[in-house]
Amino acid sequence: MNSQADAHPAADCPPRILSSAHLATGAHPALSELEFGLMVAHNAFARWVVRCMRAAGEPDLSAVDVLVLHHVHHRARSKRLADICFTLNYEDSHVVNYSLKKLLNMKLVSSEKAGKEVFYATTAQGGELLDRFRKVRNRCLLPAVEGELADAEAMSAMAGRLRMLSGLYDQAARAASSL
Predict the structure, then answer these.
(1) Coil, strand or helix at 173
(2) pLDDT of 39-73, one tens digit each?
(3) At 93, which CATH number?
(4) d(CA 57, CA 159)
(5) Domain that holds residue 24
(6) Domains: count for the chain
(7) Fewer Cβ atoms within 10 A, N terminus or C terminus of the chain?
(8) Judging by beta carbons within 10 Å of its beta carbon (0-12, 13-18, 19+), is residue 165 exposed, middle or buried?
(9) Which residues contact 28 (CB under 8 A, 6 or more apart)?
(10) What value does the mean pLDDT take over residues 135-155?
């Protein structure tokens, strides 16, 4: 198939939804369609967590702040900056550190130094906020999960594919860094 055909599918095929047709030429044109889907899903998810948190009563948190707060609260175990960055796949620890300082100032997390390490945990206030977030999520998001998205096995398989893609893009980033 030539590059023109890749960018412009036959009339009987549904058109690809792309933001960058020039990236849909050559091998794996559907990857550009997937990348566009990832981009709009990422932006929609970021907007959702900020608005859900606002509805839960905290209007001053960014999407990164919300994700960091959720992860710090995960399994009620204290976490180090490096572990938070690793788990959330943030390369720039300064972004996460800024969120942690903001959450500390808002008294949503606490910190405890152990040797050279600093461990972060949610406070009672942070836990209460996350409980309100969960209630808003249950009210606004969960009722819309239907059909294929309601299938737990299909959802887990999709999550697994997203993690595989994460590895693919991480490896490509390493390769690009060495050019």
Answers:
(1) helix
(2) 999 999 999 999 999 999 999 999 999 999 999 99
(3) 1.10.10.10
(4) 29
(5) 1-55
(6) 2
(7) C
(8) middle
(9) none
(10) 93
